[in-house]
Hints:
By secondary structure, the protein is of the alpha+beta class. The chain starts with 21 loop residues before the first helix and ends with a strand. Bound molecules: S-adenosylmethionine (SAM). S-adenosylmethionine (SAM) binds next to strand 21 and strand 26.
Amino acid sequence: MESPCKESNIPLYESSKQEPSSKAIEVSVTKNIAQRVQKVESKGPLERRCSPRLRNIPKEKRPCYVEGQRMVLDAAKLDVCKKEVEVESTGPRERRPFHDADQRWGLGATKGDVCKKETGDHNRKRPSELPGDDASKRRTYMDHSMQEWLPNIDRKGRENGQSRSRLALGSLPFKVDDAEIELEDNAYLKWTDYQSFVADAIKQKASAAVKEAVRTFNSHCLNFAQVEEKRYEKVEVRDPQVANCTNTATFTISFSVSVSPSLEADLGLCDCYANPMKTLQKGNSSADAKRSSNQSILKEISEASILVGHKFFSRDDMVATGFRGHWLNGIDYIRKLCGKLNKDNKYSSPVAVAIMLSGQYQDSVDCSNEVVFTGQGRNDLNGSKRQIKDQVMHCSNLDLKNNMELSVPVRVILEHEYADSHSGKVYTYCGLYKVVRHWSVKKASGFSVSKYRLKRLQGQPKIEIDKSVQVARNVILPPSASGCDCKGKCTNPRSCSCARLNGFDFPYVRIDGGRLIEPKDVVFECGPGCSCGPSCINRVSQHGLKYRLEVYRTASKGWAVRSWDLIPSGAPVCEYFGILRRNDELDNVSENEFIFDIDCWHTMNGIGGRERRQGDGSVSACDPVKKADVKMDESESEFCLDAGSCGNVTRFINHSCMPNLFVQCVLSTHHDIRLARIVLFAADDILPMQELTYDYGYVLDSVVGPDGKVKQSPCYCGTDECRGRFILIIYNDFFGIDVLGWLRDLKLIILSGGTLISCYLLVIIKE
Length: 767
Ligand SMILES: C[S@@+](CC[C@H](N)C(=O)[O-])C[C@H]1O[C@@H](n2cnc3c(N)ncnc32)[C@H](O)[C@@H]1O
């Protein structure tokens, strides 16, 4: 039978009854796009993708990040430029080597450009041409280019025995055409070449603009994709043929499983639980043929027990090892070893040995202490897999009920989608569970199914499926939020209560396994309180690592992270894991670079210097977000994730002033924003092997070291937009400097005409 999932069968038009003419398709698509454009336009220009927490940092404290802000900065610079400065000169200008050629080009181009642009004075005289200028004493202007200004500072610095290692400066290219600029190692560069450097810098600026445009484009694309997906969903509802094709998204689950010797043998249970190979040897009718064909494989692993947490990469593997008796059934049973004893003291009623949670029936989706399982049978295995008759209490369903009556535990295996496995799935052995309750329920289809609640036996190794935020003892997690009551997966944003919280829309589109359309203050995902299943689009960030991430060593920043796969913009990359702690617990901790403040509440409410962000649908829909007993003027976040002693790959991701990831707060299990999950999403399409970075986004002057002084860390992100330091940038100090007072710490972030230099200069000027 031809698969209904062929792309050609997925109509791009509204009506599913008749094949529309190509004209009709065109009109419909055009109309939709036109509407969407209107919608996008009415929102105003799309901002560059960046974390809301960053966008909320006031402009003057977040310099050079977007164009508008640069203007603010430039205006402030102008003030400095206009000030007349007296500089004492003690001798003829010398050729001085630059410490770093790039750095110097940056100085010259930017400072010069800024001053010229702002003052409009392009014919300013050079110091050498100023009246009264001589070798020993002359006047100069702060609004001269940096080449003219900094050498004087340099000289002062040397006279005062200051280290100038970062501020070694070149000669002054006053005679523009024939001047040479001395580089390190006695190399010289012509002034004309210098100008070409400036031109390069301008090109770099242009490339940044292109990047910006691509980001905006991507954002628009995702908006369009959302429209198309909605149209597709509409068609799906009407057309059962197409209904089978919907769940094409593949999610990767990454497991961090703690495997330790199985406790099963100690549990005093039937042989079949202690060693699956024994199950195999004793035999179970339906699987015998399959097993005998796998004898050779089985021999090799003959005495091996399957440990809790073991992963199989196909159903066949489980049958081959005798761990399961049948590759298709959801329930495995056994007659010979266990079960009800009849009057001849022989086992008559079988019991279940293993069950598989596949998510097909909205079963539980993780190896938690309590799981819900749906019985098997009476569904359309050749087609939609939908229920076509009532399930009945016989065969395997009865066996599992027997387990409850006889207090015999059952193995639980969890099936997840996993792109890298040849079967596209991975099967994790969660351990032994006892059946505690059984009931029957009518499904939306009108047919009833058997349900079982199972509890995990104590004393078995813990299994963590990349949900490894550990909680400090003094932190109490809020109760689970009641979720939506959509069946299977959420499709209608009007009826789904979780979509409502996101501004009456789903924040994700389905393409590439789920991509976030745009950053939001907070994303409300479906969680354990929802009745939708794992394939729901509104659970995108809950599927663990999907891309192959590598931790590698860099020259200047220590460890860093990159991906081996292309990551499309808007895709979830990783979640920040660590120990969830109270912030005040860490007050006395001096050196821990791996703490992530959960400051979503502050971002949303403009607390602690952050500006309240406008125009985010999620904010207005945040009524259920509670922050009980917390004063609004509180400037510190209450909780943080401490990855100092325990964390995942995210702890190795470095800061960049022009990052390719952004931070997104996500709420799924509860609605307490103070304890939101921190998920990093791709801001751009990220090529394989590119370093992954996000903006640490510290509010300026907010990080104080153990010595009580404001912490300063030079940034080596090396991007065009580098702000010099990733912890803080004290622009106010710079602008407020009393230059004529001549005794100051002058802190400069040096900008080039496109290349921002990854360092900051501390210049001490003494009268
Ligand atoms: C969360 S850790 C990141 C992983 C770190 N590179 C490592 O080797 O463990 C943060 C620390 O990395 C370094 N770092 C991160 N981004 C940096 C940047 N742009 N420039 C310089 N150092 C950076 C700083 O030492 C910072 O305190």
